[in-house]
Design a protein that fits this description.
By secondary structure, the chain is α+β, with helices and mostly antiparallel strands. The protein folds into 2 domains: 10-173, no CATH class; 261-389, Histidine kinase-like ATPase, C-terminal domain (Heat Shock Protein 90, 2-Layer Sandwich). The chain is 62% helix and 11% strand. The chain has 10 helices and 5 strands; from the N terminus they run H-H-H-H-H-H-H-H-E-H-E-E-H-E-E. It has helices at 10-28, 50-60, 67-82, 88-104, 107-132, 138-218, 222-251, 267-276, 292-312, 350-361; strands at residues 280-286, 317-325, 328-336, 365-371, 374-382.
Length: 389
């Protein structure tokens, strides 16, 4: 399989071409880093300078796509340039390779290169001075620091700022994502709450309307039909009022009076309405002041249980009991249970789901099912003693 070299970045191509042309221009005008008589110059003349220059320009093509390999090859080229008269463009391109290796290279290399160049700078300062004992020897360390350690330190600073910016951007994106998730969950929770309220407020009245309209159509007695139509009208008016209350809650912008929330005091009216719809209901209550969320949940549980009894229960007594004891409001509704061909009015099955959700939101327990010859709905709602709302 043929080895495919990474395609160089466009900016890296510009840097390589610019460095090569600049080096050729310096060669053309005869400007070099060292003169022909320099002690470390092994190859005099302008042409030996060309090989390190071309190699360094080729390394610049890889400064972003393969920074570590480019730095290794560039180090060999700069060492070769030291034994020639030298070219300033070669040195400048090497400093760029050091900078790019720290900025674009792997994290481990980015951490090591500043330390290595720093140690070379210290060694290049102390060793020549210790050997030659002349102040000019200190310039070797200065040159190494400018050519190697300076670009490495600059690349590390730029990389650190870039990583910090990326981390801040990532945190901002995560914060925005969490906010969007919270908003979505809040919308879903509000939709579920509205669905429960709409079902609990309207289902009772619509069930009564369906049952009594069926009776009015099936019994050909003017008196019975008139009574059924009276009940239908009452439930229609009550259901319309409940719908208007819900619409008012949705449209309330804070300008009007807040709509009244059902409380335990309204359960007596629920029972009377159920009796008017033909149920034999007995109410037993023994409770004190409880928080508003508990009151609303208990009210809706009793309301939905009476609706289900109206649609599904056999003839017989329906019992509603609310007892507060040991920090818990116990709500129990029982109705006669047995096999029927079908309900007296159609249902969606959302009532039990809504009651279970209400109880779960308050941290209580909920049970619903047959108990001998009765259908029992039993909910326990925790009450914060001494902190009613």
């Amino acid at each position: 399989m043929a080895l495919r070299l990474p395609r160089p970045h466009r900016f890296d191509v510009y840097v390589a071409v610019g460095g090569l042309l600049g080096g050729l221009l310096l060669m053309g005008i005869g400007l070099s880093s060292r003169g022909p008589g320099d002690p470390i110059t092994l190859f005099d003349g302008p042409w030996p300078v060309l090989a390190p220059l071309v190699v360094m320009a080729c390394c610049e093509l890889l400064r972003r796509t393969a920074p570590s390999a480019a730095l290794l090859a560039g180090t060999a080229a700069i060492c070769a340039d030291l034994v020639t008269q030298g070219n300033l463009a070669t040195i400048l391109m090497f400093t760029d390779l050091v900078y790019a290796a720290v900025l674009y290279g792997p994290p481990a290399s980015a951490r090591r290169i500043p330390w290595i160049t720093g140690l070379l700078t210290v060694a290049g300062t102390l060793v020549p001075f210790a050997v030659w004992r002349v102040p000019e020897a200190l310039l070797i360390g200065v040159i190494i620091g400018i050519v190697a350690f300076g670009p490495a330190a600059t690349g590390w600073i730029v990389r650190d700022h870039r990583d910090a910016a990326d981390a801040a951007r990532l945190r901002a994106e995560q914060t925005a994502l969490l906010a969007e998730m919270d908003r979505t969950q809040a919308v879903l929770a509000e939709r579920a709450r509205m669905a429960r309220e709409l079902h609990d407020m309207v289902a009772n009245h619509l069930s009564a309307i369906a049952i009594h309209s069926t009776a009015a159509l099936s019994i050909d007695r003017p008196g019975t039909s008139r009574d059924a139509l009276s009940v239908i009208r009452e439930n229609s008016v009550a259901g319309l009022a409940e719908m208007r209350r819900l619409i008012g809650l949705l449209r309330d912008g804070g300008d009007g009076e807040p709509a009244a929330v059902p409380t335990l005091d309204g359960i007596g009216a629920l029972v009377e309405g159920a009796r008017a719809n033909g149920l034999d209901v007995r109410l037993d209550t023994d409770h004190g002041q409880v928080p508003a969320p508990v009151e609303l949940a208990a009210y809706r549980i009793v309301q939905e249980s009476l609706t289900n009894a109206l649609k599904h229960a056999f003839s017989g007594r329906v019992t509603v009991a609310l007892v507060q004891c040991d920090g818990v409001l116990d709500v129990r509704v029982t109705s006669p249970y047995g096999h029927r061909d079908g309900p007296r009015a159609p249902g969606s099955g959302a009532g039990l789901v809504g009651m279970r959700e209400r109880v779960a939101l308050l941290g209580g327990t909920f049970e619903a099912g047959p108990d001998s010859s009765l259908w029992a709905v039993h909910a326990t709602l925790p009450v914060m003693e001494g902190d009613p709302e």
